[in-house]
Amino acid sequence: MNFQNDRYTLRLALPEDDAGIRAVFESASFSGGLSIQYLRPSPLRSFAADGDDVKMLVVRDNETGRIAAVGGAVIRREYLGGSTARTAYLTGLKVHPDYQKQLYFIARAYQYMGTLLEDCACVYSTVLDDNTAVIKMFEKHHRNMPEYRYLGHYMTYCFHGGRKFFTLDRDDRNGFDALMQTHFSQFALTPANPDYDGFGEKHFYALRENGVIRACCFAGDQRALKQYRMTAYGGIYRLLSHLPTQWLGYPKLPKAGSIIPHQVISYLYIADNDPALCRKFLRTVAAESGAGVLIWGGFETHPLCPAMDTLKAVRYGSRLYEVIWSGEPQITGAIGMETALL
């Protein structure tokens, strides 16, 4: 659809839009203690890897041919109320700085997206804590936009401290399918398919006792699809970035402008949510994986967050919202969404 005297076109993304979408992502930046750019070398391929379907919208400047803005949703099967359902993760609307405060298409884009996601049981989104302008916009409940219902806080932990406490089984998933049914299915927004390409090139690590899994997770290298670029440090992190933080058990803080050599932890299970077991298991995985940084994220009520809070880690937070065009809220209870697919 065209608007503003046919200057702009709002439509679904085409393969030839990939470079323009990437330029919008690379233009984004946020201030704060840790300023990190979240990049996708090939956005359309990356989003497709995160689920079963993608609805990616772009705003095209018809005069210049540039992509002015992009937003979309990744659709996948996730657990909701103990059963699998078709859900959508809304990636948020990103506007190139050259077009900010010039376009009046937000309500139109949200209306269009709402029609594309009518068959999804729920839609949700996250916003970094430092992105205060977007948070204020979402929480004002604008008349022509869906409701952004705040669910709570999501913390992402970046850690290392590799040390081998255990001998782990690698890539032996015996017993994991049973955990999917008895454990992970009880957490809303946990992907029902652990093998989406978006999890990266991954390995499965397990600690067993008498053949029974006591702790397990996947560690996946996503850098072919998703990258984190450290753009700048602020506050206390500006000082810490010049110190050998790895000597203290923290991840080595990368140089500004560099890509973080990360792997993402997913489907983390610890028997009885034992904090000591969790710490020792993850430190062993860190040593086994060889990654410079491991990343895991959990919703504020996740039973493993207290254990993660005792790890030496660099943290950054986000706000989790259920996005509602009509009807009643659907996301309740414990939440287990995976950082790897956000």
Strand content: 35-45%
- Provide the residue-averaged pLDDT: 90
Give the terminus-to-terminus CA distance.
28 Å
Structural class: alpha+beta
Count of strand segments: 16
Q: What are the low-pLDDT stretches, counting only 5+ consecutive residues below 50? A: none
Roughly how many Å is the radius of gyration? 20 Å
Which oligomerization state do the chains in this entry correspond to? Answer: single chain
The profile of the biggest β sheet is: 14 strands, mixed
What's the tally of helices? 8
Shape assignment? globular
The percent of residues in helical segments reads: 10-25%
The ordered H/E elements are EEHEHEEEEHEHEEHEEEHEHEHE
What is the gist of this entry?
With 342 residues, the protein is of the alpha+beta class. It contains eight helices and 16 strands.
Task: Give an overview in words.
By secondary structure, this protein is α+β, with helices and mostly antiparallel strands. Helix content is 20%, strand content 36%. The chain has eight helices and 16 strands. It has helices spanning 18-27, 43-49, 106-116, 132-139, 176-182, 236-240, 275-289, 305-308; strands at residues 2-3, 8-12, 34-39, 53-61, 67-80, 83-90, 94-95, 122-128, 147-159, 169-170, 201-209, 212-221, 227-233, 262-270, 293-299, 313-324. Strands 1, 2, 4, 5, 6, 7, 8, 9, 10, 11, 12, 14, 15 and 16 form a 14-stranded mixed β-sheet that branches. It has a two-stranded antiparallel sheet with strand order 3-13. Strand 1 (2-3) and strand 2 form a beta hairpin. The protein is globular. The relative contact order is 0.18.
